[in-house]
Specification:
heterodimer; A: 324 residues; alpha/beta; Rossmann fold; nine-stranded mixed β-sheet; five-stranded parallel β-sheet; 29% helix; B: 264 residues; two-stranded antiparallel sheet; 6 helices; 28% strand; binds flavin-adenine dinucleotide; binds adenosine monophosphate
């Protein structure tokens, strides 16, 4: 039976959440199709991770090599290309993450495998692979069919599947790394950690968060005052940081910070998944947006459709009265 | 330094009301405002900064209908030296793989040290074309580049953005494809006068045949994925909408803050 492969994603000694999400989805697919679920773990000295994953799959394929110490798409591509040729899985799942975005497209071309990226669901029906992905910043869902192939590839969007506990009591199989030498053409040098800022947005109970809808840096004080009046901190979406209107340490999202305040007020933020992934866990989400179809309203608990330049001053005035 | 930058003209849909078209496989494009893909604007700027630092030329390439001339002219106005438009009915319906294949055919005969793309396109959001293109060209790539530290002796030292504010530093051999992340630079302003100045500049147009491609190598036949249907995301539980006058809405928000946020 052709297995479903899940590529384990780990960094700096820890398995990343996306791995468990993919395994969960993989398990659901396997229950329907009867195929076995295999976790594929590449790294150096990662035996303990294999043990950790054992129950999550029918099999863990473990390939250890010093040259796999840090992620390198070229090394991974060689090893995986080799493995897939030998093992002939029907489906290979990876994360639509910095890891998968660097690796999946090249591997797909090498294997002549159809690839659907950034998917929020994947289905297998009579050997045909279908996937659901989102376009236009999350405003539209698209169902795609992958061309029939021996092996298909799908990258899954992080935080698309919730993870429950289960045990498949899998076994660990060691496979020898086919790498004979370091990859001279692409070398990992080091990690660079972001500098800590003045305000730690992960530690406040209320966050007032502002997005591109704020239009101009001159309007930032308006939302800062709203935050101040609530004893909240000011955070933002990525474009606000890209334009240097607020420092990087204020950014919420996959490439910024993950926050879980009691209340998150999203102002002029559309709710792209990279942003949503960083704030979905907030206790109560209030979104202010003039587009009633903005994806943020799908994850918010409370929504206000309207112009932020009217709502924010009104709210600020009222809070001044009530809380004074 | 010979640099190629791939740019896409996309509809700006953050505030648009999308309408699904009759085929149910796409949206109505009529009435939408189009502009350069946000990521590609940063890629063009980065290409020009590299040219200013290391010399050489910048060539902008875009696959799409005649209207992409506008987007190419924008790149020329920013400082690109040449522009190429890839247009053919046979390109329509291309997925990320097929787009990369068409681009690779156009880029292959050119001299280049670097090919820049955006990390992702705002419309399709595959996040796939750049690395696919690299593999088809048989060269290296780095995805999600947020800093190019320097280029020396045919190698580049770049920063790649990971999750949670972490970067990794990569040393790689050129030629290579780099997919450029937003925020890497501050794209220069393009004035209408600037665009007018390049209005007469020639834009080279290439089609399927010019690229030596067969019909089955592009468009839907050349794609690895086929769109079956599009639909609006189910709203799920959805948000409870707060309505009324500004005053009433403000009162409701304050009540929520008191209840859920511990505001006194
Ligand atoms: C690898 C990668 C990592 C990323 N990491 C992150 C991340 O960590 N965090 C992040 O936020 N993004 C991240 N992004 C970017 C993400 O894809 C989106 O581009 C971004 O989140 C959009 O920000 P936004 O919602 O502020 O802007 P837009 O999508 O442009 O939305 C602006 C919103 O404001 C509304 N608006 C405009 N004017 C008004 C008004 N007057 N009143 C009310 N509403 C108004 C509009 O209706 C719209 O919904 C990442 C992207 C990539 C590719
Ligand atoms: N039609 C196109 N013409 C030129 N470049 C493109 C085209 N489509 C995608 N690209 C490039 O590929 C990048 C990533 O797109 P995607 O993989 O579709 O998200 C974009 O930022 C562009 O640089």
């Amino acid at each position: 039976m052709d297995a479903i492969f899940v590529l384990v994603e780990h960094r700096q000694g820890a398995i990343r959440d996306i791995t468990f999400e993919m395994l969960m989805k993989g398990k659901q697919l396997c229950e329907k199709t009867g195929n076995p679920l295999t976790a594929v773990l590449l790294g150096n000295d990662v035996g303990a991770m294999a043990e950790e994953l054992k129950d999550r799959a029918n099999r863990v394929i473990l390939i250890e090599d010093q040259k796999l110490e840090n992620f390198n798409s070229e090394a991974y591509q060689q090893v995986l290309g080799n493995l897939v040729e030998q093992e002939k899985p029907s489906l290979l799942l990876m994360g639509h993450t910095a890891f998968g975005m660097d690796l999946a497209p090249g591997l797909a071309v090498q294997m002549n495998a159809p690839l659907a990226t950034d998917c929020i669901d994947v289905m297998m029906e009579d050997d045909r692979v279908k996937a659901t992905r989102q376009t236009y910043g999350g405003k539209l869902n698209v169902e795609v069919r992958l061309k029939p192939a021996q092996c298909s590839m799908v990258t899954l969007r992080p935080a698309s599947f919730s993870v429950a506990d289960y045990s498949l009591g899998g076994e660990i199989t060691r496979v020898t790394s086919p790498l004979t030498e370091e990859i001279p053409s692409k070398r990992f040098l080091e990690y660079v950690e972001a500098a800590a800022g003045e305000v730690d947005i992960t530690q406040t109970e209320i966050l007032v968060s502002v997005g591109r809808g704020i239009k101009d840096p001159e309007n930032i004080p308006m939302v800062q005052e709203l935050a101040d009046s609530l004893g909240a901190a000011l955070s933002c979406s990525r474009p606000v940081v890209d334009k240097k209107w607020l420092p990087k340490d204020r950014q919420v999202g996959t490439s910024g910070k993950t926050v879980k305040p009691k209340v998150y007020i999203a102002i002029g933020i559309s709710g792209a998944f990279q942003h949503a992934a960083g704030m979905k866990g907030s206790g109560t989400i209030i979104a202010i947006n003039r587009d009633p179809k903005a994806p943020i309203f799908n994850i918010a608990h409370f929504g206000i459709v309207g112009d932020l330049f009217k709502i924010v001053p009104a709210l600020k005035g009222k809070i001044g009265e009530v809380l004074a | 330094m010979e640099i190629i930058v791939c740019i896409k003209r996309v509809p700006k849909t953050a505030e648009a009301d999308l309408v699904i078209d009759k085929t149910e496989r796409d949206i109505e494009k009529e009435g939408l405002v189009f502009d350069i893909n946000e990521w590609d604007n940063y890629a063009v700027e980065e290409a020009i900064l590299l040219k200013e630092k290391y010399g050489g030329t910048v060539t902008a390439i875009s696959m799409g209908p005649e209207e992409v001339n506008e987007t190419l002219r924008r790149a020329l106005a920013m400082g690109a030296d040449q522009a190429i438009r890839l247009t053919d009915p046979g390109f329509e319906g291309s997925d990320g793989y097929a787009i990369a294949r068409v681009l690779s055919r156009a880029i292959n005969p050119l001299a280049y040290d670097l090919v820049l793309t955006g990390v992702q396109a705002e419309d399709d959001g595959y996040g796939q074309v750049g690395p696919t293109l690299a593999e088809l060209l048989g060269i290296r790539h780095v995805a999600i580049v947020n800093q190019i530290e320097g280029i020396e002796n045919g190698r580049a030292r770049v920063h790649r953005e990971l999750e949670g504010g972490l970067d990794e530093v990569i040393d790689l051999e050129l030629p290579a494809v780099l997919t450029i992340q937003t925020g890497i630079n501050e794209p220069r302003y393009v004035s209408i006068i600037g665009i007018r100045k390049v209005a007469q500049k020639e834009i080279k147009v290439l089609g399927l045949q010019d690229l030596g491609m067969k019909l089955e190598e592009a468009g839907e036949p050349g794609s690895m994925t086929v769109v079956e249907k599009v639909f609006f995301p189910p709203v799920g539980e959805g948000a409870q909408m707060l309505e009324g006058t500004m005053d009433e809405i403000s009162d409701k928000v304050i009540a929520i803050l008191k209840e859920k946020g511990g505001v006194a």
